[in-house]
Design brief:
Length: 386
């Protein structure tokens, strides 16, 4: 039986071309879908990372500002000794090891970190918050010598406080207590307080007779008393995250290392148990390009802000500031060559910023978002006397 020639025939050239074209179109469609899906996933990941960094930065700054001026339960900073403005101050337990070279104040002789209050022509004021607006003509070293890698055009703020939870307590009947060697504490019995540095031994404080806690303190602060860790910190935006030149702006803070300090500047570290101390850097959130703070001032003592300013005086922050609006401009940690940021950003009293016109040609390839929050300052300047 002869087979049909028709049944033996393969694809014609036209059919083959049509099949290849349809397959190519399908392949291009699948490839395009994959590219766009991958790009969308990458964008979502970067935006989620930016949001996480911003949330942590705002949460940290909000907590610090809301606690600024908390002195371990003391109602007035005037009741806390030592008074670092007094020429006769002699509390060596708190200040001997913190030399001018290792402190962060502007002046070489300034006991900046441990100064809780300031006397000026208008009286005594709390030193709970220090602020530097980015438009100040003097460099940041005019306030804090230890800050390095500072990103120009951004605000910076220093905060002094005790931790909210008491670190340890000593009852009247207790002969000894155990603390962290060399740590800085705000010691108080609810009536008077003092800033002290713990001795080299963990177990110390034989009631009120231990010299480490009584030298220069008049009157001595007898038990029962509590000890709260003391935290002087400076928050600022640095030009890099991990290594100088990596190009990732970050929110960082300078913190006082009470023991185990080594190195210097931005590379200093804090580990170990030696008595050496100084300011080291801890970076908290990457991609923070700008930080701007606007202060709400209460001038009629009703607890609500009556005016807002980006350039408050030191006195107005101490006496009148009741709110702080924090604004951050956050960018992605990596760039996207297929994206162009053509927006214009305006935060506080900072100049408008347009990435597309930046001299850095890659600036427009980053994703950016603006985040802000308003913080109520819990410890207002009512403690300050005229």
């Amino acid at each position: 039986m002869k087979r049909s020639l028709h049944s033996q025939r393969g694809l014609t050239l036209v059919e083959l071309m049509i099949s290849l074209t349809l397959g190519l179109v399908l392949l291009v469609g699948v490839g395009t879908l994959f590219v766009y899906t991958n790009r969308s996933n990458r964008q979502n990941e970067m935006l989620a990372s930016m949001q996480d960094q911003a949330r942590f930065a705002l949460s940290t700054l909000s907590r610090e500002l809301s606690m600024a001026g908390y002195w371990g339960g003391m109602g007035r900073v005037e009741e806390v000794q030592p008074d670092f403005d007094a020429a006769a101050f002699s509390d060596t337990s708190a200040s001997t090891a913190l030399t001018a070279a290792l402190d962060c104040g502007a002046a070489a002789t300034d006991r900046w970190a441990l100064r809780l209050k300031v006397r000026d022509s208008t009286g005594v004021r709390s030193n709970r918050v220090e602020f530097r607006n980015h438009k100040e003509s003097a460099g940041i070293a005019s306030k804090w010598r230890c800050v390095g890698g500072y990103r120009s055009g951004t605000d910076a703020v220093a905060i002094r406080r005790a931790v909210g939870q008491v670190s340890l307590t000593q009852a009247s009947s207790a002969s000894q207590i155990t603390g962290t060697p060399y740590g800085f504490y705000l010691m108080t019995n609810g009536v008077a307080g003092a800033l002290v540095r713990w001795p080299s031994a963990a177990t110390a404080a034989d009631n009120a007779s231990d010299a480490a806690f009584t030298t220069g303190i008049n009157p001595p602060i007898s038990a029962p008393r509590s000890f709260s860790r003391f935290l002087p910190r400076i928050y600022y935006v640095r030009n890099y995250a991990r290594t100088d030149g990596d190009g990732i702006p970050s929110l960082c803070r300078k913190e006082l290392c009470s023991s185990g300090y080594s190195g210097s500047g931005e590379t200093a570290s804090c580990s170990g148990s030696s008595s050496s101390l100084g300011f080291y850097t801890e970076c908290l959130a990457e991609g923070i390009e700008d930080l701007q703070i606007t202060w709400g001032l209460d001038t009629n003592n009703d607890g609500a802000p009556d005016s807002f300013t980006d350039t408050p005086s030191d006195r107005s922050i101490a006496v009148n500031a009741v709110t702080a609006q924090i604004a951050l401009r956050v960018r992605s940690s990596t760039s996207d060559g297929s994206y162009t940021d053509d927006k214009t950003y305006k935060l506080g009293d900072a100049d408008s910023y347009a990435p597309a016109s930046d001299s850095d040609t890659t600036a427009k390839r980053y994703y950016r978002r603006v985040y802000s929050t308003t913080v109520y300052l819990r410890n207002p300047g009512a403690e300050t006397s005229p």
